[in-house]
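C-alpha cells for chain A. Residues wanted.
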C-alpha cells in the first residue's frame, strides 16, 4: 500500500478512514514538524498529510529529490506550504475549504461579543474573587446592535460572518475585498479601499488568507484610522496584523479592544499582550469542534483517495 505520513494526531474516525486506503504512519509528536523532519518526510513518503505550522517552506524542498507526490493539507490555510516549490518538485497540494467556514465565523462573532462586552475582564474578575456584586456602571461595554462591522476579506468565512452579524445582531456591514463581490444575500457596502473601512467600522474582523500581499495588512497606519471605541478581531492568520503596532494601539487607548484567536509568532504570545485587560485571547480555537475537525480530516482523506485512484483532486490549490 502507498505510504502516508500523518504529521499530527487526528480524530480517531479520520485515522481509521486513512488506514482503510493507505499504509499510514502517525508521527508521535505534539508539535509542528521541524524543517529537518519535513525534508526527511519528503524523501520517505509518497503522501504527506500535514497541518498548521509544519515546515514545508522553500528550504524544505531545496537540494533534495522528494518521493512525495501529494501534500494533502489538513486545513484551509496553507501558508506553511510553499506551493510553488512543491509544484516544481512535481508535488500536488490540496486543502480543506468549506469544512471550516461556519466554525470560524462562529469564533469571529464570539470574539466580537467578548471584546465589545468585556467578557474576558468580567470572567477574570469572578475567578480572582474581585467581584463585589452588580453595579450600574461596572464593566460597561459596547452594544452590537446598529453598529458597523467591517470585514476584511469577503470569501466564504467573511460572508458567513456577515450573515451572523447582520441577521443575528442587527449590525451594518461594510467590507473590503480586492475583487468585486457579487450580491450574497446580506445588505452591505463594499469599501473602495481599506482606509474607508477603517474609518467606518466599530469592529474590524480580519478574514483574509495569509499571503505575502496580506502580511501586516492591518498595521499602525490602519489602526490610526480607526475610531477610539473600535475593536479588532483576528480569526485569519496572525501575521496579517502587525502585532507590535496592535499592542501599542491597545496600550495607548488608540482603540478600545481586540479579540484574537491567532498570533503572529504562535504559539508565542507576547507578555505585553497578555498583560492587557482590553484583549480577549484564545488558543487558535477557530475549528475546534469534533465534527468540524472530522469533516476537515475526511476532506483530506478524500483528496488522498482521489490521488490513489488517479482521479482529479477535489481541492487542489
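Reply:
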Amino acid at each position: 500500500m502507498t505510504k502516508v505520513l500523518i504529521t499530527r494526531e487526528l480524530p480517531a474516525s479520520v485515522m481509521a478512514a486513512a488506514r482503510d486506503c493507505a499504509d499510514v504512519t502517525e508521527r508521535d509528536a505534539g508539535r509542528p514538524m521541524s524543517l529537518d523532519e519535513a525534508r526527511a518526510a519528503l524523501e520517505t513518503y509518497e503522501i504527506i498529510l500535514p497541518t498548521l505550522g509544519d515546515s514545508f517552506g522553500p528550504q524544505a524542498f531545496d537540494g533534495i529529490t522528494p518521493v512525495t507526490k501529494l501534500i494533502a493539507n489538513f486545513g484551509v490555510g496553507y501558508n506553511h506550504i510553499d506551493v510553488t516549490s512543491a509544484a516544481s518538485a512535481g508535488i500536488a497540494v490540496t486543502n480543506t475549504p468549506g469544512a471550516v467556514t461556519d466554525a470560524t465565523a462562529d469564533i469571529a462573532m464570539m470574539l466580537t461579543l467578548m471584546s465589545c462586552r468585556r467578557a474576558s475582564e468580567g470572567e477574570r474578575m469572578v475567578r480572582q474573587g474581585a467581584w463585589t456584586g452588580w453595579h450600574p456602571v461596572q464593566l460597561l461595554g459596547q452594544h452590537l446592535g446598529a453598529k458597523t462591522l467591517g470585514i476584511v476579506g469577503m470569501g466564504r468565512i467573511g460572508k458567513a460572518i456577515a450573515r451572523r452579524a447582520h441577521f443575528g445582531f442587527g449590525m451594518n456591514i461594510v467590507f473590503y475585498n480586492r475583487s468585486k463581490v457579487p450580491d450574497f444575500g446580506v445588505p452591505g457596502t463594499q469599501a473602495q479601499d481599506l482606509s474607508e473601512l477603517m474609518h467606518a467600522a466599530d469592529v474590524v474582523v480580519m478574514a483574509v488568507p495569509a499571503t505575502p500581499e496580506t502580511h501586516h495588512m492591518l498595521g499602525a497606519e490602519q489602526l490610526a484610522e480607526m475610531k477610539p471605541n473600535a475593536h479588532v478581531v483576528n480569526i485569519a492568520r496572525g501575521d496579517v496584523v502587525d502585532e507590535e503596532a496592535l499592542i501599542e494601539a491597545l496600550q495607548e487607548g488608540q482603540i478600545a479592544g481586540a479579540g484574537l484567536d491567532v498570533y503572529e509568532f504562535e504559539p508565542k504570545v507576547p507578555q505585553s499582550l497578555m498583560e492587557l485587560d482590553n484583549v480577549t485571547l484564545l488558543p487558535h480555537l477557530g475549528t475546534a469542534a469534533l465534527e468540524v475537525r472530522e469533516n476537515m480530516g475526511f476532506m483530506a482523506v478524500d483528496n488522498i483517495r482521489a490521488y490513489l485512484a488517479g482521479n482529479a483532486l477535489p481541492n487542489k490549490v
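The chain has a mean pLDDT of 96. The first helix runs from residue 12 to 21.
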